[in-house]
């Protein structure tokens, strides 16, 4: 949808990840489930959530996001659950570079999500660098990796991480001033 917001439709249900930022949210389908990776305002916007929420919308959030919002069912790094017919796994999301540790420290408990829609495994990394947990992923059909310096990773690190876990399709997202074409060039 924009910077870090994604929407997936599967089996007649709407699944949003990090709905925030500029979009015409009033025209979007109402959410059946919302997943929040962490509490930064470009990932967690209560006003946007109100615009797409309906009675019965499930909200799954990392510990810091649920605490900041005051709502949401908590999921911790490494946990798995079933949500409206899809398997959901919370993958740890954090910075590993010394100069970026202040943005997303591991101990805070931020997450990315591995969603399984039918037989397709979709990984949405959230704000992270190329962590060991990311690099160890297997059988990923589609991956969304952030390239937003200084908060996440540069295109070269995203390309290197993608080489490690080999998604079939890669979307550089959450790009800030980084150029997604650079990731493509590095993977050629």
Give keywords.
5 helices, six-stranded mixed beta sheet, alpha/beta, 188 residues, single chain, five-stranded mixed beta sheet
Give structural notes.
The strands form two sheets. Strands 6-7-8-9-10-11 form a six-stranded mixed sheet, with helices on one face. With 188 residues, it is α/β, with parallel strands linked by helices. The model has no long low-confidence stretch (mean pLDDT 94). The two termini are 26 Å apart. The chain is built from five helices and eleven strands; from the N terminus they run E-E-E-H-E-H-E-E-E-E-E-H-E-H-E-H. 20% of the residues lie in helices and 28% in strands. The protein is globular, with a radius of gyration of 15 Å.
Major β-sheet profile: 6 strands, mixed
Give the structural class: alpha/beta
Number of DSSP strand runs: 11
Low-confidence stretches: none
**SSE ordering:** EEEHEHEEEEEHEHEH
Task: Please outline the helices and strands.
Layout: E1 6-10, E2 13-17, E3 33-36, H1 46-52, E4 58-61, H2 63-69, E5 73-74, E6 80-83, E7 86-92, E8 111-117, E9 120-124, H3 132-135, E10 142-146, H4 155-165, E11 169-173, H5 180-187
Parallel strand pairs: 2-3, 3-4, 4-5, 9-10, 10-11
Antiparallel strand pairs: 1-2, 6-7, 7-8, 8-9
What would a concise description of this structure say?
The chain has 188 residues and is α/β, with parallel strands linked by helices.
């Amino acid at each position: 949808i924009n910077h870090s917001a994604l929407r997936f439709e599967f089996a007649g249900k709407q699944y949003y990840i990090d709905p925030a930022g500029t979009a015409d949210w009033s025209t979007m389908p109402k959410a059946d489930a919302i997943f929040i990776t962490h509490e930064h305002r470009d990932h967690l916007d209560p006003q946007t959530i109100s615009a797409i929420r309906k009675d019965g919308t499930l909200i799954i959030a990392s510990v810091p996001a649920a605490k900041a919002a005051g709502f949401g069912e908590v999921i911790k790094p490494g946990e798995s659950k079933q949500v409206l017919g899809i398997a959901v796994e919370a993958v740890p999301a954090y910075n590993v570079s010394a100069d970026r540790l202040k943005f997303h420290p591991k101990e805070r408990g931020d997450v990315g999500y591995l969603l399984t829609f039918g037989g397709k495994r979709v990984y949405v990394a959230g704000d992270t660098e190329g962590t060991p947990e990311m690099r160890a992923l297997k059988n990923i059909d589609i991956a969304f990796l952030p390239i937003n310096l200084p908060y996440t990773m540069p295109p070269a690190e995203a390309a290197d991480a993608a080489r490690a876990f080999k998604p079939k399709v890669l979307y550089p997202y959450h790009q800030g001033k980084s150029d997604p074409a650079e990731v493509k060039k590095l993977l050629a």
